[in-house]
Amino acid sequence: MSRQMHLGLFLLGTGSHVAGWRMPGAIDSFQDIDAMIRVAQIAERGLLDMIFMGDNLYGDPAAHPSYTVRFEPLTLLSALAMHTRHIGLGATVSTTYSDPFTTARAFASLDHISKGRAAWNAVTGSSPQAAPNFGRLHPNHAERYAIAGEFVDVVKGLWDGWADDAIEADRATGRYIDPAKVRSLDHEGTHFSVKGPLNIGRAPQGHPVILQAGGSEPGQALAARTADVVFSVVQDLAEAKAQYEALKARLPALGRRPEEVTVLPGVMPVVGRTSEEAFAKLAQLMGFVDATNALALLSDRFGTDMSAYDLDGPVPDLPIPDTYHSFARVMLNKARREGMRLRDAYNLMAAARGHWVLCGSAEEVADTLEEWFRGGAADGFNIMPSHLAEGLEDFVELVVPILQRRGLFRTAYAGTTLRENLGLARPPRREA
Amino acid sequence: MSRQMHLGLFLLGTGSHVAGWRMPGAIDSFQDIDAMIRVAQIAERGLLDMIFMGDNLYGDPAAHPSYTVRFEPLTLLSALAMHTRHIGLGATVSTTYSDPFTTARAFASLDHISKGRAAWNAVTGSSPQAAPNFGRLHPNHAERYAIAGEFVDVVKGLWDGWADDAIEADRATGRYIDPAKVRSLDHEGTHFSVKGPLNIGRAPQGHPVILQAGGSEPGQALAARTADVVFSVVQDLAEAKAQYEALKARLPALGRRPEEVTVLPGVMPVVGRTSEEAFAKLAQLMGFVDATNALALLSDRFGTDMSAYDLDGPVPDLPIPDTYHSFARVMLNKARREGMRLRDAYNLMAAARGHWVLCGSAEEVADTLEEWFRGGAADGFNIMPSHLAEGLEDFVELVVPILQRRGLFRTAYAGTTLRENLGLARPPRREA
Known about the structure:
14 helices, 11 strands, TIM Barrel, homodimer, two-stranded antiparallel sheet
């Protein structure tokens, strides 16, 4: 079988478009369990590899209205596991504002509950707004990544504490656990001291899948060393290809093969039966954008208050900020390349929060995805519907069948775990 | 309608009896999602108020074999919410090893997911064995309760950050949130600094139900001030009555009515169609007890290595330890009162981990529960099956119908939320 795409559903708010919830018939709540169940089932009908739930750790009603109120990801995905059978379930948990024992345990639990479908999106937490909710100061970029590297290693070490066959539950002898098959971790590091073992047996996947999205140099280094799947922020084929190649090129020196890391650029497909229908839908979406929200989002992404700048002037030459590094870099590069006005950047941010917007007929969208996939820019895509459920349904009903006809996407789930569907090996238990 | 009992299912390991998993046909895994779904559905069939899931934060294969491996409670209960419609879902989360923002958020999330059935069992974490998993020293008893008091207040404050109607999602105006109906908490205390607001809207119950089980003086003081439901450790009617009265007597000074706190002593019913059948079952259970496990448990509860003592000698006069305070106190009192040998204490600990064991025919069990309930020792009971599912099924099928015939227990769920089924008011949003 030739190489096939992997597809994720990025679940964030009422959709990735900042005002998508205003579309007629759109889901207008990100804390409605019945709506989330419906979305998960559509994604599974489309045979997507996984649902990937973004997160943040603060409530700012001014910044991102439709995803200020949200479920906590692990509780939501655990509930969705009960309404799906195949699709992977990826939750974002911050390495800056959680702890390795709790995190390792929760993902092992989700992996048992979902019978091998859990994934952890390990983020360092871009936003300093989380810090005061935890009585903390937000560590700087370098420190966050130093913490994250140790955090991920500890989590993996905890996941290896129990052998697959440590639990005997032998009624005749009364022996429940073989103590020789359980070990503590006894980690003493720079940032963490964690004894272990966990209080849950080895996960069905061995290790739940690890997702990462950091685009900075330390982010890429961490992903190359520890991630199974990387979500990337892209706006341009050449740039995506360069980024893809750079990440894959890091792997051999780390003892990993290129196919051990699946790279999925984020894309907001706006799909119509015809190109005109798609562009009309995008225009309708953009008509709902509120200037205040869009400017707040742009300021947030650029790490600079943009309200003082002329919307019809050029995008100013700003430094790449410490937070939202990838979004700012990709957008500022694009602006420089294309001579964008600030208004264009603002519209693009409003459309998909800085992610790539791909608008066209289903055939055109499939053509571009194929071009990127075959052209060495992607192993698949992280689909970011503009609004729900329509944005997802359009993709599943119109684009997926074309990809399937072209032999680019599965026609049935092949495995029972997320690792199997991603074509990733089950990690063996590391020796102590 | 006359006063009725409230009944909880205490879900811990493969059952509360230390070796219950060895019974023929018993569930022998506490990390089997299908088994847990079956148990939850039996409890709901029995119209129980809630499932209450114990927890710990360390894996010690030697101490408690059948509950060393377990689900993380919030992920499990979120999954169980999808397979039940009425029963409350209570998860244990430690105030010593979690943080208020994460905790407030997770329970609000579970409350939304379950449509108003979440409960938080706030524990200070009795066991010092958790500390090294978090790179911490275990705070002493007084400090743990000082932390817990502030923690619970912060969580309640965060739950009040959003008004019920803060989310407008007005498609016409584009206004998603009414910012006047959201406020930060700006808590600056001795142990926590938490800004808020949460990133989730107000919970369906206003506040998820708060459970507590602390039996020490600071534990009782905290429960009287903040809990909706109190689980107690009892071995004797007179003692239970004194404890019940003492707790209720604290309430008026705190501006609370006695019926605002539901007191549920823990009990392990071993039920048969006849008394003989019940005692035969108990004997069968006790036959599975392994001396090593039982002594480890006794040592853990008493905070003293008991292996040096003569099993056929008297229970020694030990000081009440800082950890597992209630278990040790109740058991040592009982031993003194009844002149128990160490072997008796050990058997009682093995049977129900120090909780009350009530063995008899269904009529006898119902008689005793009624006596305690009418006699001012309980508002209901926290049922701790010896093993699953049989221990629970016996209670649901044999005892519940008797309680119903006597008008002591509901014949249908009255409300849609846990608060409604417990007869507790929905807390109004406190003014800033």
